[in-house]
Design the sequence.
């Protein structure tokens, strides 16, 4: 993989503007999209973000397993988590990315339609999951936050990766 294709994520907490005299507790998150929905994950749960490269399909794998990639000699499963949230597959993804995480104790890639970058979110601005969210999605969220004209849904990626469907796959190994 070419180093120019990587997105570098810095996890430093002290990058707030100097005008801010009293620093409020913040959470740095990686923003990404799945279809028309906007999500984010705490960056401490992310190893790296890469462009989707050659992916090897796995025969008879569940539909949410898109295949595996070779990441510098490590075989990493790539999952499309839309199915867990009741989202429809996008028609055409122009710049897919894979978010590599080891939040569940093993490396796995999460397919994203696009990655917008990192953002600091004030912890006090995080709201409880909306009652209007689908039950499938509410189970996997920590809350949401308003960012400009967008609402970012904060995912609990550990809960996603430890759901029953993925656990069944891991036990089959």
Sequence:
């Amino acid at each position: 993989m070419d180093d120019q294709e990587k997105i570098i994520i810095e996890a430093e907490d002290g990058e707030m503007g100097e005008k801010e005299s009293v620093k409020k507790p913040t959470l740095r998150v990686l923003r990404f999209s799945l279809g028309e929905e906007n999500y984010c994950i705490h960056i401490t749960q992310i190893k790296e973000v890469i462009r989707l490269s050659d992916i090897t399909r796995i025969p008879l794998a569940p539909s949410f397993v898109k295949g595996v990639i070779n990441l510098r000699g490590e075989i990493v499963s790539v999952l499309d988590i839309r199915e867990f949230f009741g989202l429809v597959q996008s028609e055409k993804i122009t710049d897919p990315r894979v978010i590599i995480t080891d939040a569940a104790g093993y490396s796995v890639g999460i397919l994203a339609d696009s990655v917008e970058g990192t953002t600091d979110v004030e912890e006090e601005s995080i709201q409880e999951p909306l009652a209007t969210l689908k039950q499938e999605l509410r189970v996997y969220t920590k809350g949401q936050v308003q960012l400009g004209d967008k609402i970012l849904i904060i995912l609990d990626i550990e809960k996603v990766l430890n759901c029953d469907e993925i656990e069944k796959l891991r036990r089959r190994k």
